[in-house]
Amino acid sequence: MMEERFAGFIITYNRPVKLTETIEKVLSQTYSPEKLWIIDNSDNEDTERKINTLTYENVIYHKVGYNAGPAGAAKIGLCLAAEEGVDWIYWGDDDDPPVFPNVFERLFNIIRLESASYKIGQIGIVGQYFDEKRGLLVRISDKQLKNSKTLPVDNIAGNQCKLINARVVTMGIYPDEELFFGFEELSFDVKLKIAGFQSVIDGSFQYTLREKYGKLGFKKGVVRKRNVNSLWRNYYSTRNLLYILKDNGYYTAVVYQIIRRLLKIGVAYRYGRKYGHYNMQTTLVGISHFLVGRKGENKHIGYGRK
């Protein structure tokens, strides 16, 4: 039915049960990858033992040997798949399988139809715009999604069926592995855009997802529940966004983001003293580590993907 050679990888960390569920859903797609690498960041043998019980011949286990984070694991997966000579690579995560059984087939239909109109570097189902002056990801309106089949975007959200044109990987475009965790997809997407490639999504598909999960009609200023246990992410998102902006020459956005995040320290105390204090700690450490050039995993902040 389709001529494109298609492989993929799934990043995992200490979640063997969720991983096997995701593998099943990926390989049961109406158009599925010919090979699927499991890039295992785990610090134990549970995942490897679980993979060894599976009967899929096209699932290939790759033990990293240390926790490379999503950024390092993504680079490994992209390179392994590109070396096979495939045309497109699925970039997946262990707890975010395709929502519908025909997602890949639908995306490949767009690739075939629009390849003459767009220099497609990647395609997916959930996208955003990127404000280069402020360093902000910008939500696409419901109206624009509903009326668009193929929509150029700046960023394709992580774990949203990102399909990568293998040609860009052979050109040396992949996420900065030293980021470890947080905005690794944005790191890749900005490089992709600078190299002259386009990121596109199926806009009507994203609209369907918003409808399915009750996310239509989103309004700014809506206060959402805050969880102090997830604030370790704030360290990585603060630090890594600043690196991405600086490395790509968005210096005005670097200044804007530092000021913005410092001002938000006081606001965070509205969610409680504990939340406000930890938010302040992760923000200040994230900014300071950016200023001194520190990357990689911060074991003092933690890594909560368990």
TrEMBL record:
Signal peptide region: none
Name of protein: Glycosyltransferase 2-like domain-containing protein
Record-linked Pfam families: Glycos_transf_2
Positions of the Glycosyltransferase 2-like domain: 10-136
InterPro entries assigned to the protein according to its UniProt record, in alphabetical order: Glyco_trans_2-like, Nucleotide-diphossugar_trans
Coiled-coil blocks: none
